[in-house]
């Protein structure tokens, strides 16, 4: 059944047909025709203050709900402002659809006012993208965009639509079937790959589960818990996987990588088998690749075949949706174990001892000032594991990864792959829109906060009461830490002076938020409780913390994980460990 | 270092060449040549890509290429099971004095003269890379003024067709895609 309407109405009806309930955006000339039917639509449109905010908000929404996040912008500068969040979403496999207006088709290629080749610009970091110049193509492009963004390995899809295509009259028919001859993600793993993986697991005396963000994308946490308990091996969860396996579980060894725990990093290094689930051997996890887990065979399960063998050879590749893969592995492993399995006891004993010897910790500042790690620990303790935690990028991000206790998937959001400063406030906004009944804490840096805090205005005006903890160390702390360690303490351009300017309390107030400040350890709990009790307004807390705190442990970039340091120039005492 | 010929069937849609070229460039894969043209099916084009694989495995290149939504099918064409050809157009200095020698060379390689004036001849030849390079060597002594060369195109030997075997018309119900809330 077809109906006559404008391309713009066809776009909005297509979005409704795709199940969109909310989108984040800013209008402008080229997209303006679409904003007229948006006015009457059932879709909630949230008017942001910067298109980057729209993109990260769509990401926050998607990461919390598992649905496709949607953002919308005009041509030229509106579209280029989406570049960072699209690249961010591509790196972290976030399902997004971005709609952009384009100059009229006759003007394309003429350097028209506000023309930017956004399809060309975003090719490297979209899963797919479209330029639509004929209104009859709109419904199909939208339907395909949602299918591609949300299925297989999720990712961002951009649909750029010429203004005249929005204005012209067209027949609206939302397709009931799609034909994408070049797109067939493999969902079911082959039975042979499952058998081979199960056999390796039964033979292994030193297995480790190396769990990545794919487990969360596949909603496979329950299955992971079953498989992990069946095998009994240590579980490490990467930065993107925190919450996929409970931190409180006795098999959990924490986060591996550059700022991972000694237990997690060493378990990978000493393992004879990595059971890799939805992880991609990123350099922040492997350290110097040639020295990473050199004794280990690798089972690599992922929905994206291109990840397999990209960085590390896989002895057993398993391509498929992880929910299906892990579910299939459980009976296969049971069957192998019935025939016999290697004894894990010595391995577990030595790993448990190592983990107990080197727990995460931090020094309390000597001068009585506030410890950033303590603040984050208390936010977690007083808010609990049902809340959602969203970080920026820097030291505070690593501390939030280390010191918040995660028990549930989709409760930890951060920019892992691209490392996008400015992610936290808008992503927290999107998260709160997706999960309005949950407490959402953004744990942000004073540097990051100053990149995107204007979205607090959006939050204040649209009843999106998020909470922001600014971990104010008055510097670009992570960069400063590298300067301390690798540039003889020459602090070139990392001093933000943000205990002086801006006044974050006044700034919060000016943006319609409650502004609080805290610089004494004894006030921390009361302030957090106060913030948690405010539910009708966004809250910003300026935690003025010790400037020289550092993130430990650390594996310096490009070095081997075997050279992990637990503090400056301090390696674990390997000799006292029997590994 | 090894060279491989990939025959890639792509949807005949705008931007597909940019997608493929962009992928090769951003992943630092080396392309020796790339030729695009129509196929028997107007909706599908064929790209013949010759790549030099050194630091990346051929498998990695194929898998990354396969992730492009517009790429329908990729096959490696081995020398033994395929016919491969390039097109050469070359302008050489030729006068009445050396014309006899030139003709002899052209005859050996089955090359033809497609244009001539008093000082030069334009020669057209097709063949695999070895033949084309031998021909160029043989013509060198006459003086090469200008040359234009196409990328390699290749096709599988025998009666089969890549498109027949790969074009599934499987369609996806839109109701299954998109917006279901997650269940852990
Ligand atoms: C957009 C962007 N620019 C620059 C960087 C490099 N960078 C990484 S961490 C960091 C410092 C962040 O400072 P702040 O937000 O105060 O966090 P802190 O490390 O102090 O906790 C910088 C500049 C980045 N990741 N992203
Ligand atoms: Mg800082």
The tally of helices of chain A reads 23
Residue share in helix of chain B: 25-40%
Largest sheet of chain A: 6 strands, parallel
Oligomer: heterodimer
Helix/strand/pairing category of chain A: alpha/beta
Q: How much strand of chain A?
A: 15-25%
Q: Rg of chain A from C-alpha positions?
A: 24 Å
Our measurement of the CA-to-CA distance between the termini of chain B, rounded to an integer number of angstroms, reads 47 Å
The tally of strands of chain B reads 10
Mean pLDDT of chain B: 89
Overall geometric form of chain B: elongated
Unreliable stretches of chain A (pLDDT < 50, length at least 5) are none
Strand percentage of chain B:
35-45%
User: Helical proportion of chain A?
Assistant: 25-40%
| Helical/strand content category of chain B | alpha+beta
Mean pLDDT of chain A: 97
* Major sheet details of chain B: 5 strands, antiparallel
Global shape of chain A: globular
- What small molecules are bound in this structure? thiamine diphosphate, magnesium ion
How many DSSP E strands of chain A? Answer: 20
Give a description of the structure.
The complex is a heterodimer of chains A (579) and B (184). By secondary structure, chain A is α/β, with parallel strands linked by helices. Chain A contains 23 helices and 20 strands. In chain A, the strands form four sheets. A six-stranded parallel beta sheet of chain A has the order 3-2-4-5-7-6, sandwiched between helices. Chain A has a six-stranded parallel beta sheet with strand order 16-15-17-18-20-19, sandwiched between helices. A five-stranded parallel beta sheet of chain A has the order 11-10-12-13-14, with helices on both faces. In chain A, helix 1 runs parallel beside helix 7 and helix 11 runs parallel beside helix 14. Chain B has 184 residues and is of the alpha+beta class. Helix content of chain B is 26%, strand content 40%. In chain B, the strands form two sheets. In chain B, strands 5, 6, 7, 8 and 9 form a five-stranded antiparallel beta sheet that branches. In chain B, strands 2-3-1-4 form a four-stranded antiparallel beta sheet. Chain B is elongated, with a radius of gyration of 22 Å. The mean pLDDT of chain B is 89. The interface between A and B is large, with 45 and 38 residues. Strand 9 of chain A pairs antiparallel with strand 10 of chain B, so a sheet runs across the interface. The complex binds thiamine diphosphate and magnesium ion. Magnesium ion binds next to helix 19 of chain A.
């Amino acid at each position: 059944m077809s109906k006559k309407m404008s391309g713009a109405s066809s776009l909005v009806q297509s979005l409704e047909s795709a199940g969109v309930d909310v989108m984040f955006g800013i209008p402008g000339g080229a997209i303006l025709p679409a904003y007229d039917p948006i006015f009457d639509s059932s879709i909630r449109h949230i008017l942001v203050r910067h298109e980057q905010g729209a993109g990260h908000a769509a990401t926050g929404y998607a990461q919390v709900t598992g649905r496709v996040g949607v953002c919308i912008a005009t041509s030229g500068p509106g579209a280029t402002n989406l570049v960072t969040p699209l690249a961010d979403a591509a790196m972290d496999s976030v399902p997004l659809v971005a709609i952009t207006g384009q100059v009229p088709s006759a003007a394309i290629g003429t350097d028209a006012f506000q023309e930017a080749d956004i399809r060309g610009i975003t090719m490297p970091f979209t899963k797919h993208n479209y330029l639509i110049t004929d209104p009859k193509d709109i419904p199909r492009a939208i339907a395909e965009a949602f299918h591609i963004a949300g299925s297989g390995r999720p990712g961002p899809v951009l649909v750029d639509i010429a203004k005249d295509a929005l204005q012209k009259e067209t027949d609206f028919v939302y397709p009931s079937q799609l034909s994408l001859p070049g797109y067939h993600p493999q969902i079911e793993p082959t039975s042979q790959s499952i058998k081979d993986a199960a056999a390796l697991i039964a033979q292994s005396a030193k297995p480790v589960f190396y769990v990545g963000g794919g487990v969360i994308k596949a909603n496979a946490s329950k299955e992971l818990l079953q498989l992990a308990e069946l095998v009994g091996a240590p579980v490490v969860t990467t930065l993107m996987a925190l919450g996929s396996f409970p931190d409180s579980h006795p098999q959990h060894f924490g986060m591996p990588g550059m700022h991972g725990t000694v237990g997690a990093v060493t378990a990978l290094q000493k393992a004879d088998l990595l059971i890799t689930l939805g992880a991609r051997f990123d350099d922040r996890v492997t350290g110097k690749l040639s020295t990473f887990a050199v004794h280990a065979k690798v089972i690599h399960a992922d929905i994206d075949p291109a990840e397999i063998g990209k960085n590390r050879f896989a002895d057993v590749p398993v391509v498929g949706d992880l929910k299906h893969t892990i579910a299939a592995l459980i009976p296969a492993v049971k069957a192998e174990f019935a025939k016999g399995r290697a004894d894990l006891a010595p391995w577990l004993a030595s790993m448990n001892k190592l983990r107990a010897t080197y727990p995460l910790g931090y020094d309390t500042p000597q001068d009585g000032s506030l410890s950033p790690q303590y603040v984050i620990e208390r936010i977690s303790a007083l808010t609990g594991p049902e809340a959602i935690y969203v970080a920026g990028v820097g030291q505070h991000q690593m501390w939030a990864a280390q010191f918040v206790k995660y028990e549930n998937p989709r409760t930890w959001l951060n920019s892992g792959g691209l490392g996008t400063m400015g992610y936290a406030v808008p992503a927290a906004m999107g998260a709160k829109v997706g999960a309005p009944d949950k407490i959402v804490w953004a744990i942000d840096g004073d540097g990051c906060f100053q990149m995107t805090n204007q979205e607090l205005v959006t939050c204040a005006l649209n009843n999106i009461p998020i909470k922001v903890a600014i971990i104010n160390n008055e510097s670009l702390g992570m960069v400063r830490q590298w300067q301390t360690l690798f540039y003889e303490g020459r602090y070139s351009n990392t001093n933000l002076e943000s205990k002086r300017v801006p006044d974050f309390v006044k700034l919060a107030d000016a943006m319609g938020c409650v502004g609080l400040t805290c610089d004494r350890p004894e006030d921390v709990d009361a302030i957090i409780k106060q913030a948690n009790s405010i539910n009708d307004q966004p809250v910003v807390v300026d935690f003025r913390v010790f400037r020289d705190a550092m993130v430990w442990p650390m594996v310096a970039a490009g070095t081997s994980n075997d050279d992990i340091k637990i503090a400056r120039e301090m390696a674990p005492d390997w000799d006292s460990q029997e590994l | 270092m090894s060279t491989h010929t990939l025959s890639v069937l792509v949807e005949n849609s705008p931007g597909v060449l940019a997608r493929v070229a962009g992928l090769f460039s951003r992943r630092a894969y080396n392309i020796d040549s790339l030729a695009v043209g129509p196929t028997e099916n107007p909706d599908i084009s064929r790209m013949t890509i010759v790549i030099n694989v050194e630091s990346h495995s051929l498998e990695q290149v194929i898998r990354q290429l396969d992730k492009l939504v517009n790429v329908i099918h990729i096959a490696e064409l081995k020398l033994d099971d395929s016919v491969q050809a390039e097109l050469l157009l070359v302008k050489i200095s030729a006068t009445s004095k050396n014309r006899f020698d030139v003709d002899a060379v052209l005859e050996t390689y089955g090359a033809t003269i497609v244009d001539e004036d008093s000082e030069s001849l334009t020669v057209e030849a097709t063949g695999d890379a070895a033949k084309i390079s031998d021909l160029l060597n043989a013509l060198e002594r006459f003086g090469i003024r200008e040359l234009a060369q196409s990328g390699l195109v290749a096709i599988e030997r025998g009666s089969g067709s890549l498109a027949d075997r790969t074009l599934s018309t499987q369609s996806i119900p839109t109701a299954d895609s998109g917006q279901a809330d997650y269940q852990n």
